[in-house]
Amino acid sequence: MRSADPLTDRRREDIGNANADVPEAPREMKTALLFDLDGTLVDSDPEHLVAFQRVFAPHGIELDHAEYAAKIMGACWIAIGVLYYFVLTLRGKKPVSLVNP
């Protein structure tokens, strides 16, 4: 017994029984897009601040929440890298090359 829906027919063939009760595929698929800004589902900013503090501390950069919020929170990784590369350069440190590691 063939239906008008080839997907249903394929399911029946996969089962190996042309008369099997196979649920029909939904006729209308609901579509959704979930976009999570940090803090909507999980607030990971406190953990990011601690991670940046741990990475920056050996280089003499003390990062407080205000600076993190102003210069890092929401910024792309490249912008953060360039900013702090120049901070280290201005302090007379020789940072690792961003181009040739």
Characterise this structure:
With 101 residues, the chain is mainly α. It has two domains: 1-31, no CATH class; 45-90. It has four helices and no strands. The longest helix has 14 residues, at 77-90.
List keywords for this structure.
101 residues; 44% helix; mainly alpha; 2 domains; 0% strand
Helix content: 40-55%
Number of domains: 2
Report the sheet-strand fraction: under 5%
- Oligomer category: single chain
Distance between the termini: 65 Å
Number of strands: 0
**What does the average pLDDT come to?**
75
For the largest beta-sheet, the strand count, sense and barrel status come to:
none
What is the N-to-C succession of helices and strands? Answer: HHHH
What is this entry, summarized?
The protein is mainly alpha-helical and 101 residues long.
List strands and helices in order, with pairings.
Blueprint: H1 6-15, H2 45-56, H3 65-72, H4 77-90
